[in-house]
């Protein structure tokens, strides 16, 4: 018997190509339209949650803004509500930039350098609970996300950011750009992220100059999108890395499913377990009110509504996603018992 060391990984075989999959299809278009409309009407009057204000410009968002968009893996889409409102992508950028980094450096190298577990401690650690307050290490919390940005190919912050902007644009199927207003507001108030970057740097877990990495990360969070853009981005992750509207291959298939695994583990921060328990799909939220959810093989769902719960996840986003996850049959863990033949 050989002893596995703490950080050693099992030597899993490469997946068979093409790997077999276990997914079905979305219901008929009319059914999707009916249910999305019902979800919108049902949760429009919800008043719970608080608009984020720790980045000053975000406090200007209306708590009434509300939009939902579904894009199927075949490219058809249905949307309702504030679908033309532009907002900053914020943390919803994180899984997509992680995907771009995996594509550039390999998903194994990315895992070694960034981590993909929700706490970074062994399964039975008490320390993990004691110290869990934002000390998790994966690409979807700020520390791991700044480290991810630092790994993006490029020798300057500008080069790295351009690579990110261009990659996010391929996910969305249109040219995205930065809101300079959000970037200025967040840059003037992001001391905490600067601190995280310097701390990571001191531990040798940042792969670029800490101030420049924070700058590129802050620009990444300030990229402007609509709820439709987010749904197309999610649908690309639902479609093996191929954008269903442009047919462009944005990332490799093997990267795509690993990104979804990390989203399932950590996409909604400390509430990721509750999210998975109720919704049963990989998701990612952002502080400006966006939430993306991926139904592998079926499609992407995005919601936009600024009022957040205390963990920083959109309240309406969670309610709508739960409603649609059940009605559209999206929960990955749901099964129907087979009746034995008489
Ligand atoms: N830019 C934000 C930050 O770094 C992103 C956080 C979020 O969307 N949850 O704080």
Question: Could you explain how this protein is built, in words?
Answer:
- The chain has 342 residues and is an alpha+beta fold.
- The protein is 42% helix and 9% strand.
- A hairpin with a 4-residue loop joins strand 1 and strand 2.
- Helix 2 crosses helix 6, helix 2 crosses helix 11 and helix 6 packs across helix 10.
- The N and C termini lie far apart (48 Å).
- 48% of the residues are buried.
- About 3% of the residues have low confidence.
- The structure holds glutamine.
> Alpha-carbon distance between the termini?
48 Å
For CATH, the homologous superfamily is named as DD-peptidase/beta-lactamase superfamily
Ligands in the structure? glutamine
Share of β-strand residues: 5-15%
Form type: globular
Task: Quickly name the level 1 CATH class.
Answer: Alpha Beta
- Calculate Rg over CA atoms: 19 Å
The structure class reads alpha+beta
- Provide the CATH architecture: 3-Layer(aba) Sandwich
Mean pLDDT across residues: 90
Number of strands: 7
Which helices and strands appear, and what pairs or packs with what?
Blueprint: H1 29-43, E1 67-72, E2 77-81, E3 87-88, H2 93-105, H3 107-114, H4 127-130, H5 142-151, H6 157-172, H7 180-187, H8 191-202, H9 210-221, E4 224-225, H10 227-238, H11 253-266, H12 272-279, E5 283-285, E6 290-295, E7 299-304, H13 315-327
Antiparallel strand pairs: 1-2, 1-7, 3-4, 5-6, 6-7
Glutamine (GLN) binds next to loops.
């Amino acid at each position: 018997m050989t002893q596995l060391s703490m950080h050693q990984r099992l030597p899993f075989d490469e997946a068979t190509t093409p790997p077999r999959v276990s997914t079905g299809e979305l219901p008929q278009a009319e059914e999707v339209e009916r249910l999305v409309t019902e979800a919108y009407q049902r949760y429009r009057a919800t008043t719970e949650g608080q608009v984020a204000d720790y980045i000053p410009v975000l406090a200007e968002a209306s708590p009434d803004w509300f939009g939902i968009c579904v894009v199927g893996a075949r490219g058809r889409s249905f949307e309702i509500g504030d679908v033309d409102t532009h907002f900053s992508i914020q943390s919803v950028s994180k899984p997509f930039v992680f995907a771009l980094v995996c594509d550039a450096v390999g998903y194994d190298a990315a895992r070694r350098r960034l981590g993909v577990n929700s706490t970074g401690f062994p399964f039975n650690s008490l320390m993990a609970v004691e110290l869990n307050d934002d000390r998790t290490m994966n690409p979807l919390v700020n520390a791991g996300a700044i480290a991810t940005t630092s790994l993006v190919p490029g020798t300057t912050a500008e080069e790295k950011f351009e690579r990110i902007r261009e990659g996010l644009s391929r996910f969305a199927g249109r040219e995205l750009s930065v809101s300079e207003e959000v970037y200025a507001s967040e840059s003037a108030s992001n001391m905490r992220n600067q601190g995280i970057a310097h701390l990571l740097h001191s531990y040798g877990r940042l792969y670029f100059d800490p101030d420049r990495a924070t700058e590129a990360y802050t620009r990444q969070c300030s990229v402007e999108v609509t709820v439709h853009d987010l749904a197309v981005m999610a649908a690309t992750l639902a479609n093996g890395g191929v954008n269903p509207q442009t047919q462009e291959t944005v990332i490799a298939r093997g990267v795509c499913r690993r990104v979804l695994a990390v989203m399932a583990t950590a996409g909604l921060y400390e509430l990721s377990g509750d999210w998975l328990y109720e919704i049963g799909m990989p998701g990612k939220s952002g502080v400006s009110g966006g939430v993306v959810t991926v139904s592998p093989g079926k499609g992407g769902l995005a919601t936009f509504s600024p009022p957040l719960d205390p963990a920083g996840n959109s309240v309406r986003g969670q309610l709508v996603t739960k409603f649609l996850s059940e009605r559209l049959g999206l929960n990955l863990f749901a099964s129907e018992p087979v009746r034995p033949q008489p």
